[in-house]
Backbone:
């Protein structure tokens, strides 16, 4: 288990991370979300032992994270961190050796992963000769080459087409099923919803929202009603509890303050003609994220 306990990090007088706590259990995928500058990168660096917290502690399976423990950690950075003049093989041998692997095991594991990701022909090509998408594949391969117990993924799908996103998703899911702890960070909330049952949102280094995704959605009061039929946007906006109405090509998206106002909207709709859809849906993580982060900046 990864434990981050009451961790604070200062750079001089600037507090980058403020009393942050969370846990990631074996076989679980945890979402750590936030806008740029929220403190995610600093947190990742502390987890990997590259930075020491100003206070609090971080442990992996009960051990303080040092160079012995970091061999069990994989990290896919948001920025490209490949040495472009190296070949794929040279790059992976370099990273694998840093993780305590011998060349025989590196080559065996590399061949498996190159085949999985459909890039076996690039083994002896230089990184700079690859497309951005294939460079992202190699960067991901270097992160999981050592079968890490803890894997940190920062924007893992950057530069990938939908087909390759599916390849990454499959591998991430398989790793969690085999027991790896995974921290997943992305600005694409729909990707977070695919993987993460539990998450934390940080702003200015401090947690503003945390818990299980299903509970977060349930407790978020604002709801959305999807309606198809002969109705008028102006009339809907006059109803008590209606915050906004978005008119789409074939339906209306009605934002309400809470599910207490569903009945009043239904009373208006039920006598209208050609009503073929009236569905109350849970808010998206994107909606919740925008509101919670916005609130924290207003305080």
Residues:
């Amino acid at each position: 288990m990864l434990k981050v306990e009451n961790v604070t990090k200062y750079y001089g007088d600037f507090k980058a991370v403020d009393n942050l706590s969370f846990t990631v259990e074996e076989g679980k995928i945890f979402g750590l979300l936030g806008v740029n500058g929220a403190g995610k990168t600093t947190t990742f660096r502390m987890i990997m032992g590259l930075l020491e917290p100003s206070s609090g502690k971080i442990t992996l399976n009960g051990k303080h994270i040092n160079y012995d423990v970091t061999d069990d950690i994989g990290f896919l950075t948001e920025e490209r961190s490949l040495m472009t003049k190296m070949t794929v093989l040279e790059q992976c041998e370099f990273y694998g050796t840093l993780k305590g692997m011998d060349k025989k095991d590196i080559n065996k594991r590399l061949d498996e992963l190159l085949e999985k990701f459909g890039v076996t022909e690039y083994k002896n090509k230089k990184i700079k000769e690859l497309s951005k998408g294939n460079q992202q594949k190699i960067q991901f391969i270097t992160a999981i080459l050592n079968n890490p117990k803890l894997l940190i993924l920062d924007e893992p799908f950057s530069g990938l087409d939908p087909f390759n996103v599916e390849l990454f998703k499959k591998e991430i899911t398989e790793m969690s099923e085999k027991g790896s702890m995974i921290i997943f960070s992305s600005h694409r909330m729909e990707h977070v919803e695919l993987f993460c049952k539990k998450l934390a949102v940080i702003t200015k280094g401090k947690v503003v929202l945390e818990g299980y995704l299903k509970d977060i959605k349930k407790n978020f009061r604002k709801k959305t009603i999807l309606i198809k039929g002969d109705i008028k946007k102006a009339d809907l906006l006059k109803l008590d509890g209606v915050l906004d109405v978005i008119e789409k090509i074939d339906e209306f998206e009605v934002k309400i303050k809470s599910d207490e106002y569903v009945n009043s909207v239904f009373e208006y709709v039920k006598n209208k003609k050609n009503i073929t859809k009236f569905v109350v849906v849970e808010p998206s993580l994107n909606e919740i994220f925008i509101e919670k982060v916005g609130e924290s900046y207003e305080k």
Summary: The two ends are 34 Å apart (CA to CA). Residues 221-281 form a domain with the Alpha-Beta Plaits fold (CATH 3.30.70.260). The longest helix spans residues 162-177. The chain has a mean pLDDT of 91.
